[in-house]
Amino acid sequence: MKNFSLLTLLLLFVFSVNAQEVKFAPLDASPADIAYFPNKSVKFKKTDTPSPAIKVIYSRPSAKGRAIFGELIPFGEVWRVGANENTEIKFYKPATINGVAVPAGTYSLFAIPEKDKWTVIINKEVDLWGAYAYDSSKDLVKIVVPVKPISTPVEALSIAFTTQGAVTNLVIGWDKTTVEVPISIK
Question: How far is 55 from 37, CA to CA, in rounded Å?
Answer without folding.
Answer: 7
